[in-house]
Amino acid sequence: MLLTRATPPPASRLTWALALVIVALQLAFSAGLLWVNFRTEDIPGRRVAEVLAAESPTPGYSALRADAFTPTAIPREECCATNAIIYRTRLTAADASTRYPAVLIVSAHDNALIYVDGELVGGLGRANGPAPVMSRRPQLVRIPSVLAHDNATLDIVVQRAVGFGHLRPFHIGDYDRLYPSYLMLRLLRADLPFVNAVIGAFVAAFCFCAAPLFGARALLFSLGGLAAAWAGQHVGLMLTEPPWGANANNGVYLVSFLATLVCTAWFFVEWTSVFGRARPKRHPLLAFALDPWDWRERRWLALASAAVMIVGAALIAWRLSFDPMIGAQDVNRIVGRFGLLVMTFCLVRIIAFYMRTGFREPIEASAFTFVILAAIADIAMVQFLGTYGVFLGAAVTFFPLALLLSLAVRARGVFEAATTTAEKLNLLVAEREREILDNIEDARRHERAAMLLEERGRIMRDMHDGIGGQLLGLILQARSRKLSDDALVGGLEQSLDDLRLMVDSLEQGEGSLTGALGAFRARIEPRCEAAHVELEWAIEDVGDTPHIGPDKTLQIYRILLEACTNALKHSSAKRISVSLRRVGETRIEIALSDDGQGFDAQARTNGRGLANMRTRANRIGAAFEVQASAQGSRVLLTLDA
Amino acid sequence: MSHANPRARVAIVEDDAILREELARVVDGADGLEIAGLAETLGAGRALLASDPDVLLIDLALPDGNGVDLIRQARAENAGIKIIVVSIFGDGRSVVRAIEAGADGYLLKGADPREAEAAIRSVLDGGAPISPTVASHILARMRERGAGARTELDAPLTEKEVAILSDLAKGFRYKEVARLHGISPHTVADHVKSIYRKLAVNSRSEAVFEAVQAGLIRLKD
């Protein structure tokens, strides 16, 4: 969903404001850390920078003669092939007379054990054996009052591992006065890295979980790997007594460091390729450094990243296996130099990327740029200035925030685009719907008009064939005075009957044939009564008969009327029976039977009537059947209802 | 009423002169019936109502309006009046509309004098003439009202009434229906009268409902 290639809208003022807020936070945080870092010189108490130093022949503390010590100023770059260095100073009368004399170790890569007059009073590290970890924690250690006296020997034993084995100037003074400084240092050296580790772990978990949900799996895997490696570095840095031993701890840190760098490069290539727009081909080296990589190249990159991490981890393990302390220092230096290269590459890419896209995502742009600059600055501080980096911690602390905001901005763009599209679609659908409804309405109107026209035509035909002819005949006969009054009345009554038949057929409409036949009874019963023939009415309710409209009803009427006339005239029947019943799911049967002498005898006179009935039956698609015997005859009509 | 006045007074509202005279002749010739007045138009028919006739024979298609209005007025003014619609076809639509307005029965125009007299007497005796066409029309009307289901019918037909009505719609006579249901022909007639009454009630309440819907009438809360 985030892979929309559409040009994002220019950054809103809100986006710019948020970007500025984040940069300001990062700068403020960095400045704060920097201040804390350098303020250590102003810590209350006596700052000790000029000391005596001697190398210990063992990894731990050993009581050396005074002439083994040479004066030195700390911090000093101390490399390489040594086990532990003993830094020595002496307490003054003022130091000893404070209420609770204490030593504040600002930083000791990697450990610091504190001995007063040869007695261990505290600190981190192992009294006897190799350095357990490189600990960045500041230490505030009280000197027991029995040992605190003027001119007492204060030895600080620094064991070496990953770091430089250097001790920064430390402070001697009253415990309570040193305590605030200790807290600040702890925030800088221990608490913030812990927070970063947790952030890294969460980001990694999110990325790995979310990878299948987004379109850009490699992008999220690279970010997840980066976050996991970042968390791994801090795990390596923070554990003071890891269950797997100091060497493994160093290994975790160094492998994580390498993985962080590899994943950083991978991530930035992914990001600038996934969200970047393709460019015309140019020199391969330029394209490699500046332009989006296509998916094939990125797949190679993913594989290469994994390979570099695996091979790097193996090399690190191999190096540490035969010389943990010195090896860790060497590896750290090499990886640091590699890191500078990687970060420079990323910086160039990301700047090229934002130059190309016109800084439409200021939050993202500033966060990325800041984090890369911070990494470069930190590596430089550590590798070349021998001090702690402060910028990356601040950058990383706010990096997830920037990333989330940036994703939110992108998502908002996508949602807005989706909403706009949906609205357009809705409008389109509504318009089409209206058109269709109009068309349907038109079609209905036409259909209705056509039906009415057809119905009108049918009624006119019926009138023409039936009542029109009858009336015309009556008029002609009456004019030529060939007509008796009775015949005239009879003829007129017949015409009216025919008209009523039509009205009855029309009235039923698309209702039920049951009702239509019910109405028909009144048409034939008077005739039967006049002829003294009993009419048996056996109509079943056949339910709705939607396929039998007025036209079919009228034809059925006429067929039945004809059949009834035949029966009354020619069969000398005593009884006529009309029945209606359903004979299947969709078929009904109408029958008119009599108990007369059957048809055969009058076949000749009946011929026209039968043909008429058959024609009408055919016209309405009904099966027509006549059964005749000596016991009577039966006219059968079967049709779809 | 027939006790107070041994001869039932019949008012005739019919615009066709020949048919009007024919009906007048029938009434004149019948024992126990006398003419209360003749009218050609709705207006004249209205004036005729003032004479408080016992029977009203009325055509629906009048030159100055529809007879249904006069039926409604007559029923409103005189609950005991017997109203018979005179129709040329006895078609369901017009007869049922008349019944809804309060008519008691119908008479086919051009029926022979004996039939006409019998029909008038039957209505006077409390009979309720019904044709299969009218019966099936009523059934269809009830069905479509039930299906519309905008409101419950105020006076829905009972199962028995529906069964009787559908048998009548099939063309069965009162006697045959009575035999089919194991009741007397009188009871069938009572059922039909009840059906007519309900038809009129439902028609009135539907009119009120529609008027309320249209905002013509405001009911108090």
Helix share bin of chain A: 55-70%
Number of strands of chain A: 15
Mean pLDDT value of chain A? 82
Number of helices in the DSSP assignment of chain B: 9
SS class of chain B:
alpha/beta
Give the name of the CATH superfamily of the largest domain in chain B: Response regulator
- Global mean pLDDT of chain B: 81
Largest interface: A-B, 21 and 20 residues
Structural class by sheet pairing and helices of chain A: alpha+beta
Radius of gyration of chain A: 54 Å
- The portion of residues forming beta strands of chain A comes to 5-15%
Characterize the largest beta sheet of chain B: strand count, sense, and whether it forms a barrel: 5 strands, parallel
Strand content of chain B: 5-15%
Rg of chain B from C-alpha positions?
A: 18 Å
Q: Describe the oligomeric state of these chains in a short phrase.
A: heterodimer
Total strands of chain B: the figure is: 7
Order of helices and strands of chain B: EHEHEEEHEHEHHHHH
N-C termini distance of chain B = 41 Å
What attributes characterize this protein structure?
A: 641 residues; alpha+beta; Rhopdopsin 7-helix transmembrane proteins; Jelly Rolls; six-stranded antiparallel beta sheet; five-stranded mixed beta sheet; 14 helices; rod-shaped; B: 221 residues; alpha/beta; Rossmann fold; Arc Repressor Mutant, subunit A; 2 domains; two-stranded antiparallel sheet; 9 helices; 7 strands
